Every structure is written in C-alpha cells, then in structure tokens.
Amino acid sequence: MKYAVISAVATDEIHFPDGRERIVPGGAGIYAMCGIRLWENDVQIVTGVGEDYRTIHGAWYEKNHISMDRMKIKDEKSPWTLIQYFEDGEREETPRYGLTHFQKLETTGEEMQSVFDAFDGVYIFKNTDELFWTETLKAHRGYKGKVIWEIAADAAFPENLEKVEKIAKQMDAFSINITEAKNLFGTDSCEAVIECLKGWGLELIFLRQGAKGAVMISRNEIVEVGSMPNVKVEDPTGGGNSSTGGVLCGLVNGYSPKTCGKMGSISAAMCISQHGVPEEITEEMRREACRKAGIEV
Questions:
Q1: Dihedral, CA atoms, 220, 157, 170, 7, nearest 10 degrees?
Q2: Coil, strand or helix: which one is 267?
Q3: pTM of the predicted model as reported, rounded to 2 decimal places
C-alpha cells in the first residue's frame, strides 16, 4: 500500500449567516487525504471513528474509491464539529462531544508499527505528545518509506523548540506555516525562520505562507513557490493539510522541491474552493493537476 494519513476525521455541521446549513466530512485527516488522492489512488486514513461514521460519510468514500479499512471503531460517536460562520467572514467552532472524546479516537503510537509495515508514504498531523512520539519513533526505526510531519499549532511555541527539532530531525520532511514558525523560533523575521529551519538539515521542509505560497527548504536549495492564481477561496479550512499531502506525494515520487511545492499549492487550491472537501476527485481533475505541475500523466 502506498499512503497513510495519521490524523483525525470528523463531521462538520456548518451554519451560514443566511440560515443555510450543511453537513460535510471534516477533520485534518480527510483534507490531507484529499491532497494525496488528487495525485494517487492508494491512500487510507488511519484513525479512530465512531460506529456512526460509515453511515454518515461512507457514500463519499465509495464515490471517491477510498478504503475505510484502516478506520477503527473506538466509540459509539465520531467527532462532530459545529461551525458557525458570521457576516464578517469569521467563524466559531465547537466540538459537540468535547476535546476528551476527540483525543480518545486518535491513532496511538502503539498502532504506528502496523502503519510503517504497510505503507510507502506517511503523513502525520500531531503535536509533540510524548507517549505518541516515543512509540512512533521506536516503530519508525529502519523504515524505508517517507514520512512528513505537519506540526499542530498547539505545539509551536518557544519552550517546545528543542522537542520539536528533535522529532523533526527524525522525519524526512516537516510542514509548518509561517505564523507557527515565528512563534516557535520567537522571531518576527521570515529570513531568520528560514535560516533556522535550513540548519535542521532535513530532506525537505515545507514552510507554508498562505496566499503567498510556500518556501521549500532542502539541504541544497531554498525555493519559493507561489500559490495557484485565480482561485476563489470559499473556505481556507484544510489548506495546510491538503497542501502537505500533495508535498508528500512529490517527495515519495522523487520530484524536485519546486515540483513538490507546486503539487502542494494545487492540492490546497482544490480543497479551499468550496466549503468542505470536494464532492468527487475525478481523473479529469488529476490530469489538469499534473498539467499545472508539469508532471507527465
């Protein structure tokens, strides 16, 4: 099997200012998975769900030809997030069942051995939880595939820098946005952030800059990649997760940092063009993505 996504999935119940409501698949995991699915067919999310998840969202997975076999039932209910949008564009998120319920369903470090045994590329969205990483890094020893770690925002603060760097240096690639990176290094300087990250010596660091695009930092070069032009942003949710998934695909396939960055931008553009994930990711969408990235189909 090729790609595993280690992150949570949820149901997003969206309330718009005009009174409209939508229920869509949500959670960082499904956005990262979509970012990969645009380029590759073989991708699965490894996470815990409730008994209700397949009933609510199974049709979406079937439509997109994505297996749900690695989703382990750990509770009666799956995470459910209430999202209220306001006229000024701001929004408020409330987990219906609370944060403890959400954490109970997350993939554990003990479950990571089976992931490294089975997949060629692994996306991890996580903070610096000590128990998770102790078990994960133990399982990771000798792994021949590629792993990208997208750090969760609640771990990006100066007091945590040593721990973040230690974990990141054992990964193939690291993903962080510029706001998180400035917080982590305690600086307002983009140049200082880039210099610090380059010093880590990773195969690839994906420094996300939102609408400005990204900076791709490898051992040998620093490359700036712009975001996709002419994209109408309906909802920026999942842009970072989906772009990191796209970068992982490029990394696994041995593409240059610039091409990896383009793939990330294209994946993000697909996911931020509507509220929630795309209804269906088609072969036509893949062909167009490859054309934009300069990849032969």
A1: -110
A2: helix
A3: 0.96
